Automatic annotation (TrEMBL):
InterPro entries: Ant_C (IPR005039), BRO_N_domain (IPR003497). It comes from the Bacteria. It comes from Streptococcus mitis. This is Phage antirepressor protein KilAC domain protein. The lineage of its organism: Bacteria, Bacillati, Bacillota, Bacilli, Lactobacillales. Signal peptide: none annotated.
């Protein structure tokens, strides 16, 4: 999933960028870590403490190429800020809410200077338009190059890609294979009687629990609180592939392209 920028500015001395839409804003996890002076080399540790539904992998155009990075939803961002004990996190949360409220009301973050000076507002919007046009042009060029590269490479099946990977994966990674959110895929698996939700954690029904499809990990947040997350094995990933294909007619993106 490729995301667009809806707001970009400086907040508390940090470069602050909002992606997605006004209703469903997204924030780069690594950026969030930098905002609150969290160790950026431990971003995965920070992500482990966040609910699966509140994080996802998306495509971001940076340094002249498309990169896959972790994003946090608005709730995921607030969850990180609440877990941080730094005063800076509290200030950021207040500022983020103010910015998002303005974006939803005006379509952009309208500071007082812009609201009181129409010429300044027009100039700011023109600059934003030009920056987005340049970004889109660069993205299009990279996309064209990537398409040529992909056309010259032999086609890989979803099975091939899964079997190359031996690690455990969160549901958000599998959902990305199908071009959907973790929330939507979790809902589908619940409808298919594969899993049920206990608290904030998805668990397999007994019929599937002992088949080696998932593994659970408990992450300690502080002395009084820990959270369990469910990860899928590659065996479980292939099980979901067969299930979604046969029960729902849903194919991963790589095979949807082949069918098309």
């Amino acid at each position: 999933m490729e995301l667009t920028i809806i707001n970009e500015q400086e907040v508390l001395g940090k470069h602050f960028t909002v992606y997605g839409t006004a209703d469903e804003p997204l924030f780069v996890a690594k950026d969030v870590a930098e905002w609150i002076e969290y160790d950026v080399s431990s971003v995965n540790k920070m992500l482990d403490k966040i609910d699966e539904d509140e994080k996802l992998v998306g495509t971001l155009f940076r340094s002249g190429q498309n990169r896959e990075v972790w994003f946090l939803t608005e709730n995921g961002l607030y969850e990180v800020l609440m877990q941080s004990r730094k005063p800076l996190a509290k200030e950021f949360k207040k500022k983020v809410k103010e910015i998002l409220k303005s974006i939803r009301k005006h379509g952009l973050y309208a500071i007082d200077d812009l609201l009181e000076n129409p010429d300044m507002a027009i100039a700011a919007l023109q600059k934003l338009k030009e920056e987005r046009q340049l970004r889109l042009q660069a993205q299009e060029e990279v996309a064209q190059k990537n398409q040529i590269i992909q056309e010259l490479q032999p086609k890989a099946t979803y099975y091939d890609l899964v079997l190359q990977n031996k690690s455990l994966v969160p549901i958000s990674v599998i959902a990305k294979d199908y071009g959907m959110s973790a929330t939507k895929l979790n809902k589908i698996l619940h409808e298919l009687k594969v899993q049920y939700k206990q608290g904030s954690t998805w668990l397999l029904y007994q019929k599937y629990a002992g088949k080696g499809y998932t593994q659970s990990k408990t992450h300690t947040i502080d002395a009084d609180y820990s959270k369990m997350h469910t990860y899928w094995t590659q065996k479980g990933r292939l099980f979901l592939y067969d299930l979604l294909k046969n029960k729902k007619g849903i194919l991963p993106l790589i095979e949807q392209k082949d069918v098309a």
